[in-house]
Design brief:
0% strand; flat
């Protein structure tokens, strides 16, 4: 007659593996998956150096806190109670800019991108405007999120 140990031992060994972490049963270490790099830029970011945005900012600077909160509320945006005076004013600048149609003062976004500057600030900038293959390669690196290679390319030019 077989002993209970010879019957239960294989059963316990197979059932115990179901309760262990997957990396313990193999010789391979557990590897956490790395998040992928963001491959998109933020086209919705507001340029505070734009003259139209600066004009809005200067107009809002003189407003009282309650007036700013009221204008935000009229537009359907609730100002959080823990937000400071300047943050709420910047929120209103962003709201007004977005409601007017962007921070580029009515000019098409491609207009500014298609005209090269009269003088270049660096060799890298000159290559980006005058050498389409170089620009294409740099854009591939940018889309892949390869910041190290982008830095090497920029330093190589300068």
């Amino acid at each position: 007659m077989p002993s209970y140990a010879s019957i239960l031992l294989p059963l316990l060994a197979t059932s115990a593996s179901a309760f262990m972490a997957p990396g313990i049963m193999t010789n391979r270490p557990l590897v956490a998956s790395t998040p992928t790099a963001s491959r998109t830029s933020l086209p919705m970011a507001i340029d505070y150096n734009d003259p139209a945005v600066m004009e809005e900012f200067n107009a809002i600077q003189t407003m009282e806190y309650d007036d700013v909160v009221d204008e935000l509320a009229q537009s359907g945006v609730r100002a959080p109670a823990d937000m400071g005076d300047m943050d709420i004013k910047l929120m209103l600048v962003e709201l007004r800019t977005v409601m007017k149609g962007g921070s580029n003062s009515g000019a098409g976004p491609s207009d500014a991108m298609d005209t090269p500057p009269s003088s270049y600030g660096s060799k890298f900038e000159e290559y980006m405007w005058t050498k389409p293959v170089f620009k294409e390669y740099y854009e591939v690196l940018k889309n892949n999120g390869d910041h190290n290679s982008m830095n090497v390319v920029a330093e190589y030019c300068n």
